[in-house]
Amino acid sequence: LLLKLVLLTGQRNGEVAGARWEEFDLREKWWTIAGTRTRNKKSHQVFLTPMVVEILEQAKRIGGGSNWVFASGKDKHIAPRSVNLAIRNNSADRSLSRQNSAFGDFFKVGKFVPNDLRRTAATL
Question: Helix, strand or coil for residue 77?
């Protein structure tokens, strides 16, 4: 769900991972990110599409009443590094190299990080 929000909102992995429910107005469909949480130190608003609202509602059902959209442990949010590590450990490139496939170079996929989703959204 986190990566879907990164792609659909165009926000940074850390901004999505550290999102608190108080930042969202699901009725008016806005997410306000404070400047203290952004790389450029400027607060900004993100419009929430119906698909984003649906994903947030799924996250709320899973979250068990936490203040964090993506909770991890006791009142902590998921660490952006954890997302990067999960992607790296499950990437197609790693699977191919583990199997020592004769076609590994042919099918080689470049290193993927969640910020690639942001770059994709920024390009659009």
Answer: strand
**Strand-strand pairing, 44-47 and 24-25:** unpaired
Give CA–CA dist 103/113, Å, rounded: 23
Q: Residues 2-123: name the CATH superfamily.
A: Intergrase catalytic core (1.10.443.10)
Decide if pLDDT at 93 tops 90: no
More confident site: 57 or 83: 57
pLDDT of residue 112: 63
